[in-house]
């Protein structure tokens, strides 16, 4: 009799067979009349927006048109106007991405948020990840699903998910797009996109090369990114789409500094970064497929993916890894009548796994020295989920859902023969209400349970220069939120209040800035806050019939605290500032636009859980401008930090900065004054 684990694996693999069979079937030549326009696997952008806004939750949608006329080098520029999303730059494309306190204390890479590309996971099988394969110039839209609101993708972490959608030939803004940019710090970037539709086939490819000498010492970077997809409409009701990507990253690391150096010598690199020639070099390839079948009873989508990543990462030691991640995820959606009421149901499953050869060597000025660790990391995930939306009234919907999961983690140390493993199980329900008094206005509330499983960076902590297995618990939370969003003729709003009661929150603290932080499970903590965004046309027809003056405001309030902790009492959890605001005033007319921008952090973030050291508050002034010089040709300017303000953009966390011998060099200085110019040609 098969074990439950094998049965789940077999069921997940069998779910892929219908899509594979359809993709391999040769159908007889027939004439089809009235074939639906567009793509089954990649709906139009407006359809994506409408589907997201029907969720009874604080979901947000970003169209690429919102950031196409700025120097969008990282996801910070993509998500700059999205409330509740904290994105701060350390150097190059190394970022801190946090939603509602996810990864609040993680001083490196990604934790607690699932990053998706075209609805397919980018994270590795253990939940960790980074952002290097997300090219902002290869995006058509982005959708943010905080917390349990990402259940429709199978995600149930505290931070939720962010889905970055690449264009297809059906959704691209133009068949050909060329872009060239340059600016301060030795920055240049070239990008090209081409797409074509050939009957039942469509294809699109985007390639980008970017170089920066870097604002700080020892922060030079070179990125080469390629994304492509090929779609085939097998019949009026069946379509398959293949995705491929290749990514090369060469990034020098400047390291973190003391607060004094970050504010007074911000362009310097740390001594450890220089002596160890620290860097992060990545070679990655990604292949994925989505096959969509429209049935009489509903729609079946089957996703499958394979990602290979090679990492050469000299830091405190040389981290040398080579890993594969693979998975399959079927999802069935349908609409039916239940007791005379309209009901919308989504059923899904995901199986994804990965294996990573993890070697470590002494760092000999960036080269491999003696071998210190030879391990194999293996992760497997089995998930099933369901979500139902029942319209009790024409304007009121009840949303219920649940996810069951089993996550297996195993590590083998081949130097000493030690083996460690742990499994995590969970059942995460949700319930919500959506009220639509008018088509353009929504009020919603929901209660969700989230669960975050430690990744290998959490479980394998460095002790005596070697990895040491720590059997951490998963992080569990109940989150309640209430909010409203809507549009009117001259503007719109988005407001959400949330509160998460968390047990075992995964927090990090730094012992040595050159060594990955140790992780521990906190006791009882609370993450709560406000996410607000609004925009309004202040005036129209000022200097012409088609011009307008618009004001936009984004405000995120974070109040994250310990609750009766034996060591920290009710202190604030270190890592994020309590208030983050962004104000923009735009004057726009058909010939172009100009936008002064104010980024304001009134009070800096605590750097330690004892609340003895915090960063400075700051404000930054910026200016964006665009000029349409001819049909399809745009010139743009992106000027940042015009007053050359010195500030801390991000930090790692400490237990107690005032403790004797505490090393407080955990701060990353923000970039100084910069100006970027670019042109975009679409034809």
TrEMBL record:
Keywords: Cell outer membrane, Membrane, Receptor, Signal, TonB box, Transmembrane, Transmembrane beta strand, Transport
Stretches assigned to the TonB-dependent receptor-like beta-barrel domain: 292-642
Record-annotated TonB-dependent receptor plug domain positions: 53-161
Subcellular location: Cell outer membrane
InterPro entries assigned to the protein according to its UniProt record, in alphabetical order: Beta-barrel_TonB, Beta-barrel_TonB_sf, Plug_dom, Plug_dom_sf, TonB-dep_rcpt-like
Predominant location category: membrane
Homology family: Belongs to the TonB-dependent receptor family.
Protein name per the record: TonB-dependent receptor
Organism of origin: Siccirubricoccus soli
């Amino acid at each position: 009799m098969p074990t439950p684990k094998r049965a789940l694996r077999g069921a997940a693999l069998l779910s892929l067979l219908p899509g594979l069979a359809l993709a391999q079937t040769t159908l007889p030549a027939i004439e089809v009349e009235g074939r639906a326009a567009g793509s089954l696997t990649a709906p139009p952008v407006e359809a994506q927006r409408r589907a997201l806004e029907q969720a009874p939750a604080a979901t947000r949608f970003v169209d690429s048109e919102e950031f196409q006329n700025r120097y969008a080098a990282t996801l910070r520029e993509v998500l700059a106007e999205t409330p509740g999303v904290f994105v701060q730059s350390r150097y190059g494309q190394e970022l801190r991405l946090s939603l509602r306190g996810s990864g609040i204390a993680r001083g490196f890479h990604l934790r607690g948020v699932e990053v998706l590309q075209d609805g397919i996971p980018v994270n590795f099988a253990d939940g960790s990840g980074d952002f290097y394969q997300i090219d902002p110039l290869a995006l058509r839209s982005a959708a943010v699903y905080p917390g349990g609101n990402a259940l429709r993708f199978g995600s149930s972490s505290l931070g939720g998910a962010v889905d970055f959608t690449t264009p297809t030939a059906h959704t691209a803004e133009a068949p050909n797009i060329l872009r060239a940019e340059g600016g301060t710090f030795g920055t240049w970037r070239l990008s090209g996109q081409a797409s074509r539709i050939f009957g039942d086939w469509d294809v699109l490819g985007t390639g980008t090369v970017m170089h920066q000498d870097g604002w700080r010492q020892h922060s030079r970077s070179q990125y080469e990114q390629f994304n492509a997809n090929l779609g085939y409409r097998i019949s009026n009701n069946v379509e398959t789409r293949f995705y491929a990507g290749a990514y090369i990253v060469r990034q020098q690391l400047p390291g973190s500094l003391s607060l004094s150096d970050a504010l007074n010598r911000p362009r310097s690199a740390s001594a450890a970064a220089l002596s160890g020639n620290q860097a992060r070099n990545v070679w990655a390839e990604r292949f994925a497929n989505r096959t969509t079948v429209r049935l009489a009873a509903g729609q079946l989508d089957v996703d499958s993916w394979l990602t290979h990543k090679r990492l050469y990462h000299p830091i405190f030691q040389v981290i040398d890894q080579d890993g594969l991640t693979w998975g399959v995820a079927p999802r069935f959606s349908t609409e039916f009548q239940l007791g005379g009421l309209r009901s919308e149901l989504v059923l899904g499953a995901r199986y994804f796994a990965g294996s990573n050869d993890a070697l470590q060597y002494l760092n000999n000025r960036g080269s491999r020295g003696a071998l210190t660790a030879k391990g194999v990391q293996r992760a497997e995930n089995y998930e099933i989920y369901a979500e139902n939306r029942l319209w009790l009234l024409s304007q009121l919907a009840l949303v219920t859902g649940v996810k069951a999961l089993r996550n297996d983690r195993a590590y083998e140390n081949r130097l000493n023969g030690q083996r460690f493993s742990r499994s995590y199980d969970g059942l995460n329900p949700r319930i919500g209400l959506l009220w639509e008094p008018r088509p353009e206005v929504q009020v919603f509330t929901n209660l969700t349970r989230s669960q975050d499983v430690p990744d290998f960076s959490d479980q394998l902590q460095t002790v005596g220069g070697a990895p040491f297995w720590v059997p951490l618990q998963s992080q569990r939370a109940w989150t309640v939120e209430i909010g409203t969003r809507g549009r009117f003729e001259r503007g719109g709003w988005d407001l959400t209040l949330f509160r998460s009661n968390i047990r075992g929150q995964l927090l990090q603290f730094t012992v040595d800035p050159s060594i990955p932080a140790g992780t521990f499970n906190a006791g009882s903590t609370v993450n709560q806050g406000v996410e607000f965004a609004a925009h309004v046309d202040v005036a129209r027809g000022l200097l012409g019939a088609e011009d307008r003056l618009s004001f936009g405001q984004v405000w995120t309030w974070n109040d994250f605290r310990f609750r009766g902790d034996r060591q920290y009492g009710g202190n604030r959890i270190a890592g994020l500032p309590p208030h983050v605001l962004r104000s923009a005033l735009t004057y726009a007319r058909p010939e172009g636009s100009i936008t002064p921008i104010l980024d304001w952090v009134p009070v800096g973030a605590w750097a330690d859980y004892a609340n003895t050291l915090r960063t400075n508050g700051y404000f930054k002034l910026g200016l964006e401008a665009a000029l349409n010089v001819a049909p399809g040709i745009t010139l743009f300017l992106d000027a940042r930090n015009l007053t050359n303000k010195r500030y801390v953009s991000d930090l790692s966390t400490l237990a107690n900065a005032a403790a004797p011998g505490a090393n407080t060099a955990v701060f990353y200085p923000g970039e100084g004054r910069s100006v970027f110019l670019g042109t975009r040609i679409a034809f």
